[in-house]
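Hey, quick one: can you model this chain's 3D structure?
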Amino acid sequence: MTKTKDKSTLHIIIGIAIFLLMRIFIPATNGLTSIGVSVLSVFVATVYLWITIGTGWPSLLCILGMILTGVKTPAEIWAASFGSWLIPFLIFCFMFSIALTETGFMRRIITWFITRKFVENRPWAFITMLLVGEYILGLIMDCTAESVFVLPLCLELFEMLECKKEDKLVKVILIGSICSTILSTLATPIGHVIPVMYIGYALADHGAAVSLIKYTICALPACTVTLALMILYFKFIVRPDVSKLQNYNVEMARKNLPPKTKQETYVATAYFICIALWILPDLISGILPGVASYISGLGYAVAPGIALCIMCMVKVNGKPAMNYVDLFSKVNWNTIILVCCMNTLSSTITAASTGVSTWLGNVMSPLVASVSSGMVIVAIAAIWDIVQTNFMSCFATGAMVYAAIVPMCIAFPALGVSPAAMTLLIGMGCGFGALIPPASGPPSVLMSTDWCTPSDSFKITPPIIVIFILATIFLAYPLFSAMVAAL
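Sure thing. Here's the predicted structure for all 487 residues.
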């Protein structure tokens, strides 16, 4: 305990030293203002603390530090951080994800996929249906919450099949589950933190009003192609021994599924009504523009908030369908504070009073002058973003890449790189942290046992990362760019 405490203290001292040294020795020249120096000092020190300490209190300290820089008034900082619509939206979605997990809805969906008659005695059909089921369920669920459910399901499967921990089949199923849940999170913003955050940045910083369905249309193809190629990679290159899956008993799996309850039905119905309201404006805008405008004007947080309140009022066997106090206590508040911090960074780093955008443009101009194609910048951003996020916090990675790349896109419009499309690409890329536990929630959960270790992941996951990089560059970005141009 003392050793850990000493390391934490050392990291805090280093973080303070980073802030002071940057504040003292970085000159306010070349477009960078004194306020900009302070903002960059707070930002870099915060990233260091995120990597070494964690994302909890350092995120709160960052918000307070930005207030002290004077980049904006305290009221503006609080409004940008805690006052964003994104915060209640995420809280409500977290509460629904927890409720859907606890009521058995998630298990029921996955079990449906892996108990189709055609998967019996067909191992690769089973693996495909398992990963596709996780992917489809993850399109509307938080990936970490889904991983918490998927792990015991996989362990039950391994026990039933009498698998050994060294079996390559075990590694393929767990690593495939990590990647499929992450991909589904990036394919759509429904209930997902990172895509919704960067949709918010695209609107706040670049005036691009990207709806949930428009984002999904652009991101879903790249994620789905990655999933398909990953399964082919497993089958033809990794080539695990799948003979044990010949023993998988479809009927037994069906019988082990608990009966559906009224609570599960009520909670799932409420959540799907929310999803319908989120995508409805895009579907009816040409038929009922007034209704579409009204629903769209409510934003994304109102529907789940109302649904949550109704579920707290509805009684099932004498108890609320959703227990507000219980669910509220289970929300990941560190993530909420982190998102507040990211909102703050988005609004302060690129503020005109900092001069950061001008400074980066001046510093990077010699390099950019030698770049003849905007796609080179896109490739650099995607590679940096996706590789780095597999070794550290996705939020820290996204913040760093956004702060460096987006101002450059603004400063050099001749490159033809859309700042809003780049924003969405960075958000999509920084979410693909699949390699080791510090990268994101799914590997932290699904590598929490010795059935699959980071060493196993280093042997199998890198080609999947390469596939995703190529998919973001050649599928996601062109679609994002075309969509933003059409807004």
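One thing worth noting: The CA atoms of residues 147 and 445 lie 6 Å apart.
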